[in-house]
Input
Amino acid sequence: MSTSPVLAVEMTDITKAFNSVPVLREVNFELMVGEVHALAGENGAGKSTLMKILQGVYQRDSGEVKVLGEVVSLTDTFAARAAGIGMVFQEFSLIPTLTVWQNIFLTAEPLGKFGLINDGLARKKAQEIFDDMGVAVDVTALLEHLPTALWQLTEIAKALAQNARVLIMDEPTASLAKHETNALFELIERLKARGISIIYISHRMDEVYRVADRITVLRDGQNALTAKLADVTPAQIVAAIVGREMSGNLTYEDRSARISKDAVLRVTGLGSGRRLSNISFDLHRGEILGLAGLMGSGRTELVNTLFGIDRAHAGSVEIDGKNVSIRNPGHAISLGLALIPEDRRAQGLVLEHSVQENLTLPLLDGLKGGLLLSTQKIVERAREMIATFSIKVADQRMPVAKLSGGNQQKVVIGKWLGTDPSILMMDEPTAGVDIGTKQEILAMVREIADDGKAVILISSELPELLSVSDRILVLRDGEVVRNFLRADIPSEEFLQLAVQGA
Amino acid sequence: MSTPSTQMMRSLKFVKRFDWRQNIIYVGFVVVFILFAILLGDSGFTSTNNLLNIARQTATISIMAVAMTFVIATAEIDLSIGSVAGLASVVSAMAMSSFGLVAGVVAGLAVGLVVGAINGGLVAWLKVPSFLVTLGMLGLVVGVARWITASAPVPIADATFIQIFGGGDFGPLPSLLVWAVVFVAVGAVVMNKTKFGRQVRATGGNTQAAMFTGVNTARIKFYVLLLSGVVAAIAGMLYAGRLQSGRFQWGTGDELSVIAAVILGGTSLFGGRGAVIGSLFGALFIGLVNNGLILAGLDVSQQQVVRGAIIIVAVALSSKKKTS
Output
């Protein structure tokens, strides 16, 4: 009786259906005390449903959940929290206008005399939690004044303050720079040593190998693989995720024959605010230009400036040999530019509007019958686009919010390709999408370039960048520090070093 | 082409998919109408005269609600419309007495253009919240109207003006009714069938995404507030024509009825949706309730209490999240 349980979480034969469509079919998942267990699978494979059952957001139809050896009912999120389940949200559940300690103790403030909040004690406790985590943070700082990396750590501290024994981390490195990611991994090691168990959801294979002990893969709502990472190869994991062996889409093919000699875009000495200075490069028809760099190196700022969202203060931009001064996105579109923005939910889509409305928003001029918009033309155009980009949607009048992340991204890409741009800029187009969709998107990028369009691609995943780019610019502190032809990059490590500035 | 069974499937599906937030106003309208028809049939509720009266009394609210639907669909608000109506009525009356009919109409419209342009400019380009801009404008405009008239009414004698702006009939129909029908019809078409309408809803649904898509969101906000000002000025002239005078009090408090009508009609205060026909029924619903309570013999204070309660319940129902 006195021996402590070995299993932090044991989920057995979990079944769940929505509107009689099965989402989880007899799924098993176990997490040992002090273990980091990766959970992988395509979007829609059932990962988030399984985790929401563990957090008490959804109720399972059948099956059993044990936390630390005891059967728990998990009727709501409070029950899950009381059982020791903590969630580190991908979209942060923090209030920017409160301080770090106020966020950590929100709804669980330690009270002092007369039922008033004991600020001193709360601050001290918050500081202790961060000290235990080995992280230096001013707990009295307002959250909005801190970098995003510290938001993530505050989320973790918040979960620990509620005595979480199990932490669920959903794509925790998505918004982190390399050194911040390293700090997070070191923290995960320390948490493990203290007996905290972690479920680590990620699409990034290198991270999974670095941080996790075991991996469970779900496919179509069923267990596809559970293994020690020491015992499986990345190829086996990918095969389990997609259910088939991947073709060699991640290897670069020489496309130099397809790239035209004349520049479609020529940027000279471009500067914008304090974040971009003296940027110069050419982009040719049929070329895929990769932008590499850390978070904040100026990649997003560069494409935003070219698209007229940020103002250029210095330098010149030529399109097809003509000097242009881009005033706003509408002007950029008329010049043949398109930008697939970094944050598809905030910048790419009107979530509550239908798939059809989102797809046709930039195309309305071509969808008129006389003075008014033609519903028939809109419906047909959207139907064609859904077919072309193989967007999985039951009804094109459905709000785009109900689509999976990968399909939402396809809507954003489809919307932009519909404008038939001559220069397509894509900012992290594969972030947070599953590996199958990722392959589809990369194949699409190649096709677009083969079609004679020029592409600028931003990606933080170097293997992806290396697999499609014909040329790679490395940015650091708002400047272009290197300009490589793909053929001159011998390995991922070489590029990684250039990005890190070593 | 479809067989009866698929048609039934479709109607079943329709019942399941029925969006309460969007459509509660029609249900509410019918229920309240039937209720009043039964309870107040003896007091003449269902007489043609009374029904036309309701339509006439709610016409100005309906017209302003059409413009407000666009404003709210972009997630902005315009609190200045009632006072703009008042100022337009007095400016129009004053200009008419000195320079004639055309000058009067032009002057009235100019009030809406100027106030709407100031509201729109401050919101669109200086990024001042529309709530604050138009709240300030409300007081300012009333002040100007009282100042230039010394708070006195300005009589209107021009028969043509009265005939066109709400006092007379167009053929068999009261002109106010015709104005309202035209505004609602044009508004509904613009919202649903034009690029402008789509861009208005995209701007309200997600300003950032709309901007990234090449929608000039600042210009959309400017136009919507400009439109709201101009339409409020027209409503003011309709008051002036119907009541044969310009007075700063015309339209006082209308902004609240108009906003209530728009929300009742299924437009989201958070932007992204705009139901013009719904706004019309929202306005008619409010008119129906006002009329019924008067016929029921309630005194003014009781009317206020009951009307407030009915609007709270109806707005609560119409802003309830759709349960899928």
